[in-house]
Amino acid sequence: MTELTITRICHLFESKGDQRWQAAPVTLLQHALQTAWLAEKAGARDSLICACLLHDLDHLLEKDGEHAQHATHGPHGAASLGTLFDAAVTEPIRLHVDAKRYLCYAHPGYSQGLPPEAKHSLEQQGGVFTSDQARAFMREPYAIEAVNLRLWDDQARLAGAGTPSLAHFAATLRTRVLPKRPSQQPPEARR
């Protein structure tokens, strides 16, 4: 797989982001922008805003004819971004599927508000957490951020909702990119 860069991520959103997001009346790009915008309006840290924008990136990284599995798209997306961003960005992405399972356990009425496709994917993802699983999840360093991401994710399905542009959020992404180690830089950059 080609190494991810901010330019490549933006290209993926621009070239594949027009796909419909599940049964919602929004595209993958609109869903990502809405999720990030909800986080920004709530005063979230830049790292969480970036995680919100990128939480479903694995769906854009799919090869033709292959669909990201609902249960694994968080961990796969986080792993794909691991050389570009630190844990403050990647861990909420990795945990956002489990955050849905946690919310169904912690707030029994939560699952009633999920759209049918999210209820279906919940079963594929392992179902509602047990009390032991919920306690273990909440011990994860970025569990609270993942829960917030999940709540914004659930709200980001509104047709025609106004958001800042992808370029606006790309500027935030650039502030969070990990510095390259000398061995990762091209020879001319090491001079």
Write structural notes for this entry:
With 191 residues, this protein is mainly α. The protein has 11 helices and no strands. The longest helix is centred in the middle third of the chain and has 20 residues, at 87-106. It is globular and about 45 Å long. The model is unreliable at 64-69 and 187-191 (pLDDT under 50).
Question: What secondary-structure arrangement, pairings included, does this model have?
Answer:
Elements: H1 6-16, H2 28-41, H3 46-54, H4 57-60, H5 73-81, H6 87-106, H7 116-124, H8 131-138, H9 143-155, H10 166-176, H11 187-190
Helix pairs in contact: 2-3, 2-9, 3-6, 3-10, 5-6, 6-8, 6-9
Instruction: Give the percentage of residues in beta strands.
Output: under 5%
Q: Work out the helix count.
A: 11
Gross morphology is: globular
> Which residue ranges are poorly predicted, with pLDDT under 50 across at least 5 consecutive positions?
64-69, 187-191
- Major sheet summary line: none
Question: Radius of gyration over alpha carbons?
Answer: 17 Å
- Mean pLDDT equals 87
Span of the ends, CA to CA: 28 Å
Give me the strand/helix succession: HHHHHHHHHHH
Question: How many strand units?
Answer: 0
* Proportion of helical residues: 55-70%
- Which structural class best describes the helix and strand composition? mainly alpha
